[in-house]
């Protein structure tokens, strides 16, 4: 059983920054691609980005490219989402999740993610 704990959300003004963290625990260790999925009020969930196990490759949805950066520290079993130049439309609950091993790299489907964190609220005021 894998447990993921998301943290780091909060209230920030437009143009500001936040760093989200996702701490993983449980067995087996997580040699998996990790993603961040967000859900704004009244909207569908959206896969924001994903990072491979080694941290050498990451992919982002167009709306966050050049603003968000994924990284990971496998020694700490933690994945990070650095969010810069935040916009009001980034307001959402953000979840980290593990990509199912059979899923395609770059998938935009939330259903390809199996273990999820509880989510952390990000609110950007304009």
Textual characterization of the structure:
This protein has 126 residues and is mainly β. Helix content is 0%, strand content 51%. The chain has no helices and eleven strands. The chain has strands at residues 2-7, 10-13, 18-26, 34-39, 46-51, 58-60, 68-73, 78-83, 92-99, 113-116, 120-125. The mean pLDDT is 94.
Give a short summary of the structure:
With 126 residues, this protein is mainly β. It is 0% helix and 51% strand.
SSE series: EEEEEEEEEEE
The DSSP helix count reads 0
Question: Hey, roughly how much beta strand do the residues contain?
Answer: over 45%
Unreliable runs: none
Largest sheet report: 7 strands, mixed
| Mean pLDDT figure | 94
Helical residue percent band: under 10%
User: Structural class given helices, strands, pairing?
Assistant: mainly beta
The total strand number stands at 11
Distance between the ends: 40 Å
Q: How many whole angstroms does the radius of gyration measure?
A: 13 Å
Q: Any idea what the shape is?
A: globular
Helix-strand blueprint:
Blueprint: E1 2-7, E2 10-13, E3 18-26, E4 34-39, E5 46-51, E6 58-60, E7 68-73, E8 78-83, E9 92-99, E10 113-116, E11 120-125
Parallel strand pairs: 2-11
Antiparallel strand pairs: 1-3, 3-8, 4-5, 4-9, 5-6, 7-8, 9-10, 9-11
């Amino acid at each position: 059983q894998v447990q993921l704990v998301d943290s780091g959300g909060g209230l920030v003004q437009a143009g500001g920054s936040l760093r989200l963290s996702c701490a993983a625990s449980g067995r087996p260790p997580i040699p998996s691609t990790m993603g961040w999925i967000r859900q704004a009020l009244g909207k569908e969930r959206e896969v924001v980005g994903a990072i491979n196990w080694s941290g050498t490759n990451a992919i982002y949805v167009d709306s966050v490219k050049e603003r968000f950066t994924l990284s990971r520290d496998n020694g700490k079993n933690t994945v990070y989402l650095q969010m810069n130049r935040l916009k009001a439309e980034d307001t959402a609950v953000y979840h980290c999740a593990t990509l199912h091993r059979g899923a395609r790299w770059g998938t935009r489907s939330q259903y390809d993610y199996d273990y999820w964190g509880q989510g952390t609220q990000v609110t950007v005021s304009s």
